[in-house]
Amino acid sequence: MAGDTVLETEDLTKDFAGFIAVRAVNLRVARGSIHAMIGPNGAGKTTCFNLLTKFLAPTRGRIMFDGRDITALKPADVARLGLVRSFQISAVFPHLTVLENVRIALQRRRGGSYDFWRSKRVLHALDEPAMTLLADVGLTAYAAALAVELPYGRKRALEIATTLALDPKLLLLDEPMAGMGNEDISRISALIKTIAASRTVLMVEHNLSVVADLCDRITVLTRGQVLAEGDYQTVSADPAVREAYLGTGDG
Fold first, then answer.
1. Is the pLDDT of residue 140 over 70?
2. Is residue 199 part of a domain?
3. Structurally, how many domains does the chain consist of?
4. pLDDT digit string (tens) for 114-129?
């Protein structure tokens, strides 16, 4: 693996009883980049994410992360190495406060015990790093609010904060803008840009204006295969991409 590549797949394939959901995908994600996977519904994007984070085992192929073969590892082991999918560990507790949610996520660094029974003094030792994370995602003013009371876009920001508590090297975001209005999209887009200043981001996203604005490189999937790859200008000008995806109105 090249030194500037944090994630690479070779011939990544997933066969479900004769249906090939992902076929021979060769993916390279550059360290420090924002890389998008796009494609019409059913193109294999979510299956790829599930393979990369080990919720599915590949039928064949290899996955390399940060110079290590992770093909046979379990999801928790992959997360500990720094490859984290947002919803895997967001686990927002609706009736705990925003601060408490992030504090619980930070406890993961202690080796797996969530210490609900520990004294308030011990738990409050995590308040400062938790508040730093909340500041990073624009939620300082919501620290005392119950998670269930947050507007949708703010709740997504909280999920990202709990993910960042694991200090991931590579953050996988599955449709982070889904269901958002324009104001929330702008806020989360700015947040992703901030995150990418010190981390690598791989995202599945249907909003093409977001992809065009955020992403350094784009992989286009269709029927489980890579159709095209490059920057937005390159892939959007590709006639095959226009036919398979951009012209479908599928979003």
1. yes
2. yes
3. 2
4. 555 455 666 678 999 9
In a domain, 186, yes or no: no
Percent of the chain with pLDDT strictly greater than 70: 88
Report the distance separating Cα 118 and Cα 242, nearest Å: 56
Yes or no: say if 54 and 75 are a contact pair by the CB < 8 Å rule: yes
CB 70 within 8 A of CB 63: yes
- The answer to whether 113 touches 136, Cβ cutoff 8 Å, is no
Instruction: Tell me the pLDDT tens digit for each residue of 149-159.
Output: 999 889 989 99
Q: C-alpha angle 155/156/162, rounded to 5°? A: 90
Q: Are residues 78 and 89 in the same domain?
A: no
Write phi, then psi, for 222 (nearest 5 degrees).
-150, 135
